[in-house]
Design a protein that fits this description.
This protein has 15 helices and 20 strands. The protein has 575 residues and is an alpha/beta fold.
């Protein structure tokens, strides 16, 4: 009765709301959240006095300053350049290249900006955005690009160079996008700027090589973000079944992304900040700052943390498998001892650092290769230690965190061959007394694969050998192959995705008691690894769109009965 009532309540909330959920990038009904916030604050002031009152007034004043500055910056945008007046329109040369306003090619009109004389990939046209971009704001950046005649295909990207206190750092704005000399290509992305700066320069570069290229029709626009506050919380609706999480980075713990996180998720997984290369890039030198910030946010908001990941074949610093001179270690018994000791040292440092604030760890990640006769990935870990690194990692993690839940994590676990290798491995580890508490199923799925029945069978098989199951990296590509691309994802595809999410979560519901958490690999479509894998393309794999608004995918897991309102007669319907 309880689980029925919670789910029913979520459906009631969805039925009562007047917010539209339609397609990624569609129009939404706006709410004046600032006015509501001021009203709540005003009612709260009456119950405060003395220093508390002054503290609230100070915080409110600082908040007002931030709003004022953001408003001043937004008032200067959008900035657009099309070069039709024959000038550079604010663009300048980065790195000694030659810029020319030209009529040789154009995306619209008759002119564009041509860059030649490049001797390094980072050289190109640049634009000063110091006074145009501010911390905590979102921007939509667009530029059209084309290679000069005779140039071989290349990837072009947009980057910002940030200078603060004399230190320059570089941040990707638009990822690598394939461009040719045959046609104009639109480079476009939403970018959340989450830093301070003394100066800030946006520039166009190539991933590799030095081809000459044209740009045209550049636009930088401010995009205000506000989450929907009148919709049901995902984690609350599924609280009788499992916890619901999201993979996060530093950008997710401030602004609207933090609001979305707190409303809909009660678990987080750091996407990169706990990986070996991030935390211990140099032997014995640890960088805990980014991960500590994520954990502190989680603790402050009653959110649980999954540690990801202690041992993986990727994002491992080179020194782990090198000698003191930077040469590869020979494959012998001495190297095996050294590599295992380095692994142990890493775990003994990292796991106790986070202590009880991280209750679950992905101890080893992606160790199975179904193409091998014995099922084990031929990673450097395997080359130097065989399978001993797996045992050592679990044993040491359990020793230093005896109450933590320890998981083996992998993808494509519905593949029968790979699934059997994983089952055999876990049973063998248990037989050797190695403490493995559960398996993480990454679940990077698409709109066709795998079937819900395959998921159901897989979870039951692992549950039968006495381990917990967690869905650890869930997302759903809108494509079913590695070559197709959309410039705009069709509504019918997004609707189909909604039904696929419905079927998947109905399967999770049927498996109640066998799955303890479901974690999405990201919060919203504005930040997904699939935008660059397996090729750069527009993706929409998550519950919320690039504006953090709920999609059909959200409806599919919260109030699936409402999907029918959109699909009567095979077409999208408003309600």
């Amino acid at each position: 009765m309880q689980k029925f009532s919670v789910q029913r309540l979520c459906w009631v909330i969805m039925s009562a709301t007047k917010t539209k959920y339609k397609k990624m990038g569609g129009d939404r009904m706006a709410e004046n959240g600032f006015r509501k916030g001021v009203s709540v604050l005003g009612r709260s002031l009456g119950g405060l006095g003395g220093s508390a009152l002054w503290g609230v007034m100070l915080s409110f004043s600082l908040f007002s300053v931030i709003l004022l500055l953001s408003g001043m910056v937004a008032a200067q945008l959008p900035v657009a350049t099309n070069f039709e007046d024959g000038t550079m329109q604010g663009w300048s040369a980065r790195g000694g290249v030659t810029l020319a306003n030209t009529t040789e090619a154009s995306n619209t009109g008759i002119r564009s900006l041509k860059t030649t004389g490049r001797t390094a990939s980072w050289q190109g046209p640049q634009y000063d955005v110091t006074s145009l971009m501010t911390n905590g704001s979102r921007y939509h950046v667009t530029v059209w690009a084309r290679l000069a005649p005779g140039e071989a295909p290349a990837s072009i990207r947009v980057t910002v160079a940030r200078v603060l206190g004399g230190t320059t750092t570089y941040h990707n704005v638009i990822p690598d996008t394939p461009v040719t000399s045959g046609q104009w290509v639109r480079l476009s992305a939403y970018y959340d700027y989450a830093f301070n700066h003394d100066s800030l320069t946006l520039y166009v570069e190539t991933a590799t090589g030095t081809p000459s290229f044209y740009i045209d029709d550049f636009e930088l626009a401010y995009t205000p973000l506000q989450i929907q506050t009148d919709i049901a919380s995902v984690y609350q609706c599924w609280s009788d079944y499992f916890r619901v999480g999201a993979a996060v980075s530093q950008r997710d713990i401030s602004g609207a992304h933090a609001d979305l996180l707190k409303k809909h998720f009660n678990n987080i997984t750091p996407d990169n900040d706990m990986k070996w290369a991030s935390i211990e890039p140099t032997e014995g030198v640890f960088n805990y700052g980014p991960a500590d910030a994520l954990v502190a946010f989680a603790v402050a908001n009653n959110i649980k943390v999954r540690g990801h990941t202690l041992v993986w074949h990727q994002q491992v610093p080179a020194w782990v498998f090198q000698d003191g001179s930077g040469n590869p270690l020979p494959v012998n018994a001495a190297s095996k001892t050294l590599v295992l000791q380095r692994l142990e040292n890493h775990i003994r440092a990292v796991v106790p650092h986070f202590g009880a604030n991280v209750g679950v760890w992905d101890v080893v990640n992606e160790v199975i290769d179904p193409g091998q006769a014995d099922g084990f990935r031929r990673s450097p870990w395997y080359q130097y230690t065989g399978t001993d690194y797996i045992d050592r990692a679990f044993l040491v993690a359990h020793e230093v965190a005896p109450t933590a839940k320890l998981f083996i994590n992998d993808y494509d676990t519905t593949n029968p061959t790979k699934r059997q290798f994983l089952l055999n491995l876990i049973q063998a580890l248990h037989n050797r007394g190695v403490p493995v508490d559960g398996i993480g199923h990454q679940m990077h799925v698409n709109i066709d694969y795998p079937t819900a029945d395959a998921v159901f069978q897989t979870i039951n098989m692992f549950s039968a050998i006495g381990v917990d199951n967690q869905i650890t990296e869930l997302d759903m590509s809108v494509y079913n192959n590695g070559t197709q691309t959309y410039t705009v994802v069709p509504d019918l595809v997004l609707l189909r995705q909604g039904y696929r999410y419905r079927d998947l979560f109905n399967t999770f519901r049927r498996l109640q008691g066998k799955i303890s958490s479901v974690t999405f690999w990201g919060q919203a479509d504005d930040n997904t690894w699939l935008s660059t894998f397996p090729i750069p393309r527009l993706e929409a794999p998550l519950l919320f769109d690039e504006q953090l608004q709920a999609k059909y995918a959200y409806i599919g897991i919260i109030a699936p009965i409402r999907l029918a309102k959109y699909s009567r007669g095979g077409r999208i319907m408003n309600y």
